[in-house]
Design a protein that fits this description.
67% of the residues lie in helices and 9% in strands. The chain is mainly alpha-helical. The protein folds into 3 domains: 38 residues, YefM-like fold (3-Layer(aba) Sandwich), CATH 3.40.1620; 37 residues; 48 residues. Strands 1-2-3 form a 3-stranded mixed β-sheet. It holds the Pfam family PhdYeFM_antitox. Antitoxin component of a type II toxin-antitoxin (TA) system. This is Antitoxin.
Length: 128
């Protein structure tokens, strides 16, 4: 977390925005006689909103707790992707981002809650 005062944030707003976008961190803007504020990238914000939404469901929260427990007891093993897997994952993310941008340009935007519900329904249908 980076902290800047209000004057510095105003004078270097582009730099502040570039930093939060590049580093995936937040910047606190401190004000002497008022409440502080936080600047974060849209990706970071969307991630927080999605996490909050997913944790609203007791079943999802329990599943996450079980997953964290397995990770902590090393039942789940982490591994590094080889170069080919790493490149393939980047290409998939880029393709998805391009589709998303094309949807935005075409005015085909969706409510996040509705989209998450649709994903859950598709996953449930596949598991049957």
């Amino acid at each position: 977390m980076h902290v800047v005062n209000l004057s510095e944030a105003c004078n270097k707003l582009n730099d502040v925005i570039d930093r939060v976008s590049r580093d995936g961190d937040v910047t606190v803007i401190s004000r002497p006689d008022a409440a502080d504020a936080v600047i974060m990238s849209l990706d970071h914000y969307n991630s927080l909103i999605e996490t909050m939404y997913l944790l609203q469901s007791p079943a999802n929260a329990a599943q996450l707790a079980r997953s964290i427990g397995r990770w902590r007891t090393e039942q789940a093993r982490l591994r590094n992707l080889d170069d080919e897997e790493h490149e393939a994952s980047h290409l998939l993310l880029l393709e998805d981002a391009c589709r998303g941008l094309a949807d935005v340009v075409a005015g085909q935007v969706k409510d996040a809650h509705g989209a998450l519900s649709a994903i859950k329904r598709r996953r449930a249908a596949k598991s049957r």
